Amino acid sequence: MSKAVVNVGIIGFGTVGSGTARIILQNGALIEKRTGKKIILKRIADLDIVRDRGVAVPPGVLTTDAYEIINDPSIDVVVELVGGIQPAKKFMLDALKQGKHVVTANKALLATKGHEIFKEAEAQGKSVGFEAAVAGGIPIIKVMREGLVANNILSIYGIINGTSNYILTRMTREGAPFEKVLEDAQDLGYAENDPTWDIEGIDTAHKLTLLASLSYGIPLSFDRIYKEGITAITPEDIAYASELGYKIKLLAIAKVVNSEIELRVHPTMLPEDSLISKVDDVLNAVYVIGDAVGETMYYGRGAGDMPTGSAVVSDIIDIASRGKGRCCSFLSAGPCGYTIKDSLDIETMYYFRFTVLDRPGVLSKISGVLGAHNISISAVIQKERREGEAVPLVVLTHRAKERDIVNAVKEIDTLPVIAAKTRFIRVEGKE
């Protein structure tokens, strides 16, 4: 598509759609000056074309029929910003079959149904741009696909859900309970009315699916990612983490160990002096270690109309400048030399919070079970003393295998000195 003028149609005129339109209309001259490509916003489709989005759209651009865009032979790039699985999937497939390139911010669709989308794009010789699907305005897809292409990616650590990061930040600063901060986040528009995908790690896992496929050439593997959300994190856990020199973040982790890849999303204790642990509020960050480049970090706004719209427009410009479809076969390739590690076989450090009856010999009983499961203790905190009553006992371990941790907790929770279910949190960092 080596053309000086590129016609674009947007399906979905919500938050990201309006930001995308605003950038094209306001910064079109700047884009043309820098790239030699004139981006024309030809059509915008949405079921509601009456509500004011604060964007001055030229007359005749708005329509309620998405197929006025998909079937228009003059439109080169279709931008899908409807979200969800259907009708977004049908819109994208039909646009590709009509010989159009596609740009999307739809991480859920690509993570779970992307093999169909990319297969069709490859068959048609067209591109699927998805920079906006991961970390909003941070150009992490281009970084992984181009900037770090000469590296073997050793590990990725991502704070890539602003809602969860905001909640954990407020809990850390104020000692507030999860439920109260979630309610505030909803009032401020940082959390949806149904926040399940954000607080349970599902949204983060969608994004990790795409990053892992780009980085390691593995098929899209959303179902293979271990997922755990932040709903069980308490102010007490955060306070103990701080005392031990850590902060708790919802982290996406992809890590190569020998020829196996760990893929997991869960609350993680990180050293409080690490760069990524300092990323707070609704901001996102992706920390990448490559064998040649070493440690790198990419930081910025992970959502919002203009940051995400910026990523959408960058894909449009990339497609316009390249003049041909980008092969997506690496996302549906055959054997790549890696297997995905069973989550029970991962090895890391662990934080335990036991609720125990304050009696003599409790620690020795617990440490005996841990030792029998090959788990050694590196630190212990027990401040409160209320003889015969339930008190917290906090333990930090050296590296251990998850399977041993799970089995040890099952056994420990049957001890008569345990008053409540044991909590544990994985810990990343040097011992």
Number of folding domains? 3
Derived from helix and strand composition plus strand pairing, the structural class reads alpha/beta
- The CATH topology label of the largest domain is Dihydrodipicolinate Reductase, domain 2
Average predicted confidence as pLDDT: 93
Low-confidence stretches: none
CATH homologous superfamily name of the largest domain?
Dihydrodipicolinate Reductase, domain 2
Task: Please identify the top-level CATH class of the largest domain.
Answer: Alpha Beta
How many β-strand runs?
A: 18
CATH architecture of the largest domain: 2-Layer Sandwich
- What is the overall shape? elongated
* Termini gap: 53 Å
Query: What Rg is obtained from the alpha carbons, in whole angstroms?
Result: 24 Å
Largest sheet: 12 strands, mixed
Proportion in β-strands? 25-35%
> Helical proportion?
25-40%
What is the count of helical runs?
13
